[in-house]
Amino acid sequence: MTTLRVLTIGQAPRPDLQAEIAAAAPGLPILLEGALDGLSRAEIAALPPESDADTLFTLLPSGEGVRVSKAAVTARLRTKIEGIHGPVLLACTGAFAGLPDRIDLIQPSAVLNGMAEALLPRGRLGIAVPFPEQIPTLSAKRARPGVEIAAVALRPAATDAERRDAAAQLAEARPDLVILDCISYSRADKAAFAAAIACPILLSVAVAARAAASLLPE
Question: Does the reported pTM lie above 0.70?
C-alpha cells in the first residue's frame, strides 16, 4: 500500500498522533513529519502568535503543549508540501490559506465542515477547542445559517477530571452533534464526551485519517 505522508504543525515524532491514526485506519502506512522539524525549543518560542486568529496549538514530542504563529507555520508547511508527491494529510483542524492548491491535500477543517453540514443541516453544533481565547474565532469558522454553536475549551492531553468537566459543561447546551476541533484530541477525549452527551461525537484525527486513506489504492 502507498505510504501516506502526514504533516503536523509541530514536530515529529508524535507517537500519540500515529497511534490515533493507526486506530482509525488500521494497516495504513504513514510517514509523519513536522512543520517545525529542525527547530530548537528557543526557535519555536520565537514564533509566537500575533493574535487569537493567528494562534495554533500543538504538542511537541516531549508532550509539552505550545502555541505558535499560524502564519509562520503556514509558510513552512507550504515549502514541505511543494516537495511531496502523492496524498498528504495535514494534521491540524485549522483552515490554512496559501497552501498549494491540489486535490490530494487533505485539510481536516474542510472535511469536518462537509461532514457536519451533511449530518446537521440545522440544529446545535458543539465544539471543543484547546483554549478559551480560540472560542470566538473557531465558533465563527463553524457557524452557518440554521446552526447554533456551543463551545467549550479543553486542552489536549488533559486529565480525566478536566475531560469530564468540559464534557459536562458542553452537555448543558444539549448539542445535536459535537466536533472535537483539534487533531491532538484522542479516543479518551471522545469517550468522555460520549459518556456525557447523547449525540454523535466527531474525533477530528479519526475523520481525517479515514478521509486520507480513501485516496490511496485499496
Answer: yes
